[in-house]
Write a structure and sequence with these properties.
There is one protein chain. The chain has 132 residues and is an alpha+beta fold. It has a single domain, classed as Nuclear Transport Factor 2, Chain: A (Roll), CATH 3.10.450. It is 18% helix and 37% strand. The chain has 3 helices and 4 strands; from the N terminus they run H-H-H-E-E-E-E. A 4-stranded antiparallel sheet has the order 1-2-3-4, covered by helices on one side. The longest helix is centred in the middle third of the chain and has 14 residues. The relative contact order is 0.18. InterPro entries: NTF2-like_dom_sf (IPR032710), YchJ-like_M (IPR048469).
């Protein structure tokens, strides 16, 4: 399954780009501003934000200390699948390792990252990650 750019936000009853159940019961509410109940769910919502072109969610969910000044989403990249490899939470810190598959024109690839998250004021935020 492939998901496109900013104009392709799924309907509430459609499959969620992250591989979860429906968009309306999975990442949709988090993209709309609801707090993610776990670092893994925030990771899934960030993947979905890349898949649907929601740069505003990426900015909101990024730790202000490490967030870049500008966040853009490449409309030519199609995110085609997400696998969570590991998810560990310990207090207000968490690590989520994942594999995200993509396609850009005829090129295909896989991004592997071990991401760090922190809970600030009761909300999970992405801090940074190490790409394999």
């Amino acid at each position: 399954m492939s998901f496109g750019s900013a104009s392709s936000r799924p309907s509430a009853s459609a499959a969620c780009p992250c591989g979860g159940p429906t968009f309306g019961s999975c990442c949709g509410p988090i993209l709309d501003g609801a707090p993610a109940p776990s670092a893994e769910r925030l990771m899934r919502s960030r993947y979905t934000a890349f898949a649907v072109g929601d740069a505003a969610h990426l900015a909101r969910s990024w730790h202000p200390r490490t967030r870049p000044d500008e966040i853009t989403v490449d409309d030519g990249t199609r995110w085609t699948g997400l696998d969570i490899v590991e998810a560990q939470e310990q207090g207000d810190a968490a690590v989520v390792a994942f594999r995200a598959r993509w396609r850009h024109g005829v090129d295909v690839g896989e991004l592997r990252e071990r991401s760090r998250f922190a809970r600030r004021a009761g909300r999970w935020v992405y801090v940074d990650g190490d790409v394999d």
